[in-house]
Write a structure and sequence with these properties.
The chain has 198 residues and is an alpha+beta fold. The chain has eight helices and seven strands, in the order ααααββααββββαβα. The strands form three sheets. A three-stranded antiparallel β-sheet has the order 3-6-7, with no helix packed on it. It has a two-stranded antiparallel ribbon with strand order 1-2. The longest helix has 14 residues, at 91-104. It is globular, with a radius of gyration of 17 Å. The N and C termini lie far apart (39 Å).
Amino acid sequence: MALGKDYGTQQCTIARVLEVVGERWTLLVIRDALYGVRRYNDFLVHLGIPRAVLAARLQNLTADGILEKRRYQESPPRDEYVLTERGVALWPVLRSLGRWGTGHFDQPVLRVFRHADCGTELGSYGECPTCGTVVPVPDVEMTPGPGLDPDPADPVSRALLTPKRLLQPIGLDPAGAVKESPVGSSPAQAGSVQASSV
């Protein structure tokens, strides 16, 4: 018997949220979108997810307003998936889950998140201890941590070895080779959704 997709007997906000993001793979798709992954094949390669499952997750996340589908090529038609403001607002949830896993399961530090403006590592809740503010998602810089594989097999993981801001699209050419990101480009210049501090 298949599990239901809702929690109809629960009067609980967490239960409602789980109906949207609680399926296996969903939070990892959102994580990758925060990291700048936007294209179907890049999600597929980086996550190692079955095609049918990825297609279903992208469709559901789009229908729930977490992702927005954008056309980036007309011939043949191809779309990419960009986080909406609602999707970007999930950053503190993913950050907390990552920190919880590192603290309670002896997981190595795979990525370090810093305030791009001053270089300070973010606190537990996404705040900058130096500046005393919660850092807006587009101003968070992600760098490889000591536990990250320095020679990954897939091109998306290789692209994510370069320090970059969250939401800034990863740079892969059509053949899957890592492209250099323009120096000084911001997420706004790259077309990412801007969000207020979360």
